[in-house]
Amino acid sequence: MSTESATLKAYAAHPRTPEYAPLRFGTLTPALEQAPEDGTYYLNMGPQHPSMHGVLRLLLRLDGEKVVECEPVIGYSHRAHEKMAERGIFAQFLPNPSRMDYLGGMIYNVGYCQAVERAFSIEVPERAVVLRTLCCELNRISSHLLWFGTFLLDLGAFTPFLLAFQDREKILDILDSASGSRLTYCYANFGGLALDVPEDFAERTRQYIKEQRAAFHTYHELVTGNVIFRQRCEGVGIITQDTILSYGMTGPNARASGIAYDVRKAEPYGFYPEVEFDVPTRDEGDCLARYFVRFEEMEQSLRIVEQCLDRLPEGPVGPKKPLVRVKPKPGEYYHCVESPRGQFGMFIVADKDPEPWRIKARTPSFSNLSAMAEMLEGTMVADTIAILGSIDIVMPEIDR
Amino acid sequence: MTALLDTLEGTLGGWGTTLLVGFVALAGLITVNAMFMVWFERKVAGWVQGRLGPMEHGPQGTLQTLLDVVKLLGKESIIPAQVDRKVFLLAPVVAFLPALAMLSLLPYDNNLTMTDVESGLLLVFAFGGVSLMGIFMGAWSSNNKFALLGGMRAVSQNIAYELPLLLSAMAVVLCAGSLNLGEIVAAQTGENGLWFIVMQPVALGIYLIAATAETNRAPFDIPEAESELVAGFHTEYTGMGFAVFFLAEYTYMFIVCGIGATLFLGGGDGPLLPGPVWFILKVYFLLFLMVMARWTYPRLRFDQLMNLAWKFLIPLSLINLLATAAVLKFVEVGS
Amino acid sequence: MSQDSTNSAVPVPGRSVRPTGFGGAVRFMVRSMLTLFVGLKVTLKKLMGRKVTEQYPHEKPVMSGAFRSAIALVSFDDLNGTHDCIACDACELICPSYCITVRGDRLPDSKKKRATEFLVDFSTCSLCGLCLAVCPTETLKYSSGYDDAGYNRGWIHNLLEPYADDPEAPELLALLTARDEAKRAARKAARAAKEAPAAKPAPEAETTPANPAPEGSDG
Question: ipTM surpassing 0.85, yes or no?
Answer without folding.
Answer: no
